[in-house]
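HUMAN:
Could you generate one sequence with tokenized structure?
ASSISTANT:
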Amino acid sequence: MDFFRSTVKKQSDSWIFPSGKGLTLSGINAAGIDTFSDVPINSITREGIQNSLDAKDSALDGPVVVKFQKHDIPSSAIPGIGELRNVALPAMRSKWDSSETAQEFLNTYENVINEATVPVLQISDFNTKGLADKNWQSLIFVAGDSVKDDEASAGSKGIGKFAPFAASNLRMVFYHSISEAEGERSIGVSQLVSFDKPAKDEVTQGPGYYSAKMEGTKYLPMSGDLPFAINRKINEKGTDLFVVGGADVKIMDRFFRHREVPDSENFSKPGFQLKKASFLGVFVGRT
């Protein structure tokens, strides 16, 4: 079997929100996300470039290439949109009915998913290794920590992974990665507020995963295909992030129109090391 193909058998993907009894509730003010909420597009650009530089494939010649694209997709194409609209959203409204801030977020959430189309910001890197399993687990499932393959790697200590969620009005990101050891895999993450599951007398912890299923303590990658144009050659290693429901469409449009990295001061702060010879940015714009 081609080692780049996922070993997950085809089955029904769905949103899985971990839950239990007596859990601490996750509210709308999430420290990791709020850190980047003032300048979300700047933040996601900075963090995305740094993550890609950290994943450079030393076996390949040439610089790391990071491609930024903006798509519009039908809202009906959002994976698991029915579950989110008909189950999660009403449950979140009920749970947080006395929180004005939470209701404001949920109003925006509902408006976005009820639009005919939603904006998607895609960040793809090339000449990189893709995500090994330890990096995959750290990026998607671990809060407050990060795994770097190179001790000299710069960047934040795990908090940078929340930047994409600050750039999404839905707090929704899909990840797609191809690596030599793990093959091709995808998963979705929604960083939402807690809500009740009356049938189980449980409450969710907040994050939800669009996954084939939970096996043991792990969420398996999706068995189906992403509804986005990945624009990657077959078996070409690298990682793609899809930020669904851009938080500030005007800023996104201006970002692509000028084709420049915004607010250069943010890219010279301690911990962010950008070597021009090792990086090439490509701004594609709307597709």
User: Anything to note?
Assistant: Residues 176 and 186 are 4 Å apart (CA to CA). The chain has one domain: 14-286.
